[in-house]
Specification:
heterotrimer; A alpha/beta (346); B mainly alpha (273); C alpha/beta (265); A: 346 residues; alpha/beta; Rossmann fold; 10 helices; disordered N terminus; B: 273 residues; mainly alpha; MetI-like fold; 0% strand
Chain lengths: 346, 273, 265
């Protein structure tokens, strides 16, 4: 793994210092439950989400389809209502301030300004007709009518920050004239316009070619260091997360099931699902052997089995796993695991 | 699948539409049969308001408006269904051929015809046809079919072009399926579902079109009862005998509404499929 | 061809070019490609978007016409599909597609799709074809109950299995798989890859695997061709190409992938 992508050096922050709560955390999510409105009623998509993001931290959220990680990201920037979702329980504290139940008006002061968001599809984040420069101006001036030279200078500064060459030309181009990688950089630039303290990236490299991915990941790591901001990345690709995150959080079927330092989790996952996920990685597999697989399929949203959500596919499930609620996470030093049996093998 | 699950799947608007339409159709079949009045001849006192004897009153020629209205509905429904049915089948078939044909000469020619017809406002074309064949029930039918099939063709053409590029069609060709088999079992079934939804929404337009043509005098000739014609004929009496126009209008509106509910509901159900 | 192929190749591609006419001008998707595949081996074609790997796959199979050059499969020249494909050709090479949603007819249940393939490719009657279809579906992990479900109720992984069963109905010698696991979850993709390996071992099928995922190709393929913008920039044994890449592009590709271990390191 290239070492320059790992955290190094002290962060330099040119905006008001991030206020953290008593534990030094920017973001503290506790017992959050998210439900989606469907024709048949409200369906839970995330239950028991508890985690924190420290200032300048880098959290990677790993989950397959149905894990709820995308909905969780949306809850953190208050866009759940657009998808018919809402937080039904729990708390999300940003710099000590409660975000659950916040009215849209208040969200506008947080979204973009405090917490930035980069969607998975760069085309979804950009207006296909407007030139890039105009869109970035909107992001920089926060939608205010009066746009001055300072704003324009900032746009060029942002393009430079995300390492887009020939910034003066790019500002007059439209989204479809740019390559996928460039578009993603523009979307990141827009997200950084208001100097947020936390940047959430939802599957930032999934739609990109491998060679372009590496550039984007390096960019995110550099930005984190240069701007002193925290980063939260969701991905289904373990390798991507291992590259730039220092903490990893695994989600399965709407529940957070393991949290720990990337090195620790990689060396010895505490939860059987994390372990199975790591073992079934193709990029680390031995070509002479069959791949390790997890039997069965992840449950579809809301159709969760009783007890621990993973038990039907778990190689070490016991009777206690099959009943009751999804087990809450327990701490083991700096690590957390939602498996009832974790204590046994530590 | 359990019955309860099926019940949940049925769009409620669809259900309301079906029930409403069912009642109207039932009425249009039963009323002319059971009523003692004859739709075409006036035996009662003319210009009488709604009463227990004449539920919708009588018109200027002493005809019972109630029985006339539903006899008219029967005619309108029948013509509309026939017109939509034929347009749907012919238009979808030709459209599918066009969509699959790609750049062949036949497709090109057909596309030219289809696009030309679609370029005109429907009523203008329909009036044109009626001007040629003369106002009558077959005339109206011909007018609507000749001008309507092109819209189905356009829908089917677009859909067929998309389906033709779908991987499962490629797979079918690779497996050695004949072109006929691919067309009939793979392309067509995936094309007509969308066309059918379109046809249902067209049904409303067609019913209103038949009424409009007759209202303009270019459709059904008196004394044949037809909803649009009845509204037109009753216009001059609107002040003294409002029931002559209003009741047929209400029935027309309800019929159109019920079909629209069915069309919308069906489209919603198919969309989630 | 620089590396030796032990036996007569079952696929030989010589100077193949494919060009598409687009409103923005001609696109040279594949340019002068040479390729050989020996019977029974798994050959990977890797490349990023726009590399032409999918187009090359479709040209080998006959779905896309070649502008110049030639392709021979099992000794016979590949001709673009026109009319009905012969049973011999259908029994030679079949394809698995990337998008599990569009690779199955939404109006057919798995059992119908596979039974139809058996009827046409094997010439069996209705009942025996159904039997054979159920057996084929079972062999790829689709239960009889699942076979009768509506296709849209199946998951992506299950749908890909149905596609494989349908392709196997033709009893092909070669399977061309165009990114079959790209849209699947990691754990599901792993099962599908195991399935492919098992099928290959059991039936002696030759597999041409197209992917942008180097990790998967490195795991599955004996030999690999690296494509960039329509040309083959490097090819050889997988271990050699990924372990000690010679071409600059291959080096960039390999070093960009987080996690792929360089054998030479």
């Amino acid at each position: 793994m290239p070492s320059d992508l790992e955290t190094a050096g002290t962060p330099r922050s040119d905006h008001d210092a991030a206020r953290t709560d008593a534990d030094g955390d920017l973001l503290a999510v506790s017992g959050v439950r998210i439900a989606l409105r469907r024709r048949s009623g409200e369906v839970p998509v995330v239950e028991t989400a508890t985690f924190t993001v420290p200032a300048n931290g880098a959290l990677g959220v790993v989950g397959e389809s149905g894990s709820g990680k995308s909905m969780l990201s949306r809850a953190l920037i208050g866009t759940l209502p657009r998808y018919g979702g809402r937080v039904t329980h729990g708390s999300i504290r940003w710099q000590g301030r409660e975000l659950v139940g916040l009215p849209e008006k208040a969200w506008r002061t947080i979204r973009g300004r405090e917490i930035g968001y980069v969607p998975q599809s760069s085309m979804a984040g950009l207006n296909p007709i407007l030139p890039i420069g105009e869109q970035l101006l909107e992001a920089v001036s926060n939608g205010r009518r009066r746009v001055d030279a300072e704003h324009r200078a900032r746009v060029l500064e942002l393009l430079d920050l995300v390492r887009i060459p020939r910034a003066k030309q790019v500002v007059s181009e439209t989204a479809d004239q740019l390559s996928g990688g460039m578009r993603q950089r523009v979307v990141i630039a827009a997200a950084l316009a208001q100097r947020p303290k936390l940047l959430i990236l939802d599957e930032p490299t999934t739609a990109l070619d491998v060679t372009v991915q590496a550039g984007i990941l390096k960019l995110v790591a550099d930005l984190r260091r240069e701007l002193g901001m925290a980063v939260m990345l969701t991905s289904h690709d373990l390798a991507v997360i291992e590259t730039i995150c220092d903490k990893i959080m695994t989600m399965y079927a709407g529940a957070v099931i393991e949290i720990g330092g990337v090195g620790d989790v990689r060396g010895g996952p505490l939860h059987p699902y994390t372990k199975a996920l790591m073992e079934s990685r193709v990029d680390q597999a031995d070509p002479t052997r069959d791949l390790v697989t997890i039997p069965g399929e992840p449950p579809s949203t809301g159709n969760w089995p009783p007890g621990c959500r993973f038990w039907p596919r778990c190689p070490v499930a016991v009777d206690a796993c099959r009943v009751g609620d999804q087990p809450a996470m327990r701490s083991f030093g700096q690590r957390w695991s939602a498996c009832l049996r974790t204590g046994e093998w530590l | 699948m359990t019955w309860r699950a099926r019940w949940r799947d049925i769009d409620k608007a669809f259900l309301v539409g079906v029930i409403l339409l069912g009642l109207i159709v039932l009425a249009s079949v039963l009323v002319p049969v059971l009523s003692k009045f004859d739709p075409s001849s006036g035996t009662a006192k003319p210009m009488q308001g709604p009463s227990s004897a004449n539920l919708f009153g009588t018109d200027n020629l002493g005809r019972d408006v109630f029985v006339r209205a539903f006899a008219a509905t029967r005619l309108d429904m029948a013509v509309a269904m026939a017109a939509v049915g034929v347009s749907l089948v012919v238009g979808t078939l030709l459209g599918a051929v066009m969509g699959l044909g790609g750049r062949s000469k036949l497709s090109g020619l057909l596309s030219l015809v289809v696009d030309s017809i679609n370029a005109f406002p429907f009523i203008v074309l329909a009036l044109g046809v009626v001007a040629v064949v003369g106002p009558s029930v077959p005339g109206v039918l011909a007018a609507i079919i000749l001008t309507g099939w092109a819209r189905y063709a356009r829908v089917a053409r677009a859909r067929a072009a998309v389906i033709a590029n779908a991987d499962f069609v490629h797979a079918a060709r690779l497996l050695g399926y004949s072109r006929t088999r691919v067309m009939i079992r793979h392309v067509f079934p995936n094309v007509y579902a969308e066309s059918f939804a379109f046809a249902l929404s067209e049904l409303v337009i067609v019913i209103l079109a038949i009424a409009s043509l007759s209202f303009l005098g270019a459709g059904v000739r008196p004394p044949t009862p037809e909803l649009g014609a009845m509204i037109s004929e009753g216009r001059i009496f609107l002040a003294q005998a409002w029931w002559i126009s209003i009741f047929p209008g209400a029935v027309l509106a309800l019929a159109a509404l019920s079909i629209q509910l069915i069309a919308d509901g069906y489209e919603r159900m198919v969309r989630y499929a | 061809m620089t590396e030796a192929i032990a036996t007569d190749p079952i696929i030989t591609v010589t100077d193949l070019s494919v060009t598409f006419a687009t409103p923005r001008g001609p696109v040279h998707a594949v340019r002068g490609v040479d390729m050989v595949v020996a019977p029974g081996e798994t050959v990977g074609i890797v490349g990023e978007s726009g590399s032409g790997k999918s187009t090359l796959a479709r040209a080998i199979v006959g779905l896309v016409p070649a502008e110049s050059g030639s392709a021979f499969v099992d000794g016979r020249p590949v001709r673009p599909l026109r009319g009905r494909r012969s049973r011999v050709d259908a029994g030679t090479v079949q394809m698995i597609f990337q998008d599990s949603y569009t690779s199955l007819n939404p109006r057919q249940r798995p059992i119908d799709a596979v039974a139809e393939a058996v009827r046409v490719c094997q010439g069996l009657g209705r009942a025996p074809a159904r039997e054979r279809a159920l057996h084929l579906l079972g062999s790829v992990g689709i239960s009889p109950a699942q076979s009768r479900m509506k296709t849209r109720s199946l998951s992506g992984g299950q749908r890909q299995r149905v596609s494989i069963a349908r392709a196997l109905a033709a009893d092909p010698k070669i399977l061309v798989a165009d990114e079959p696991t790209s849209s699947l979850d990691q754990s599901i993709a792993a099962s599908l890859l195991n399935l492919l390996r098992r099928i290959q071992a059991e039936r002696g099928i030759t597999v041409v695997f197209i992917s942008h995922d180097l990790g998967v190709v490195r795991y599955l393929a004996h030999r690999v061709y690296v494509m960039k913008e329509g040309v083959i920039v490097e090819h050889g044994l997988t271990a050699d190409v990924f372990g000690a890449p010679e071409h600059e592009y291959t080096r960039t590709l390999v070093s960009s992938v987080p996690g792929v271990r360089s054998e030479a390191a």
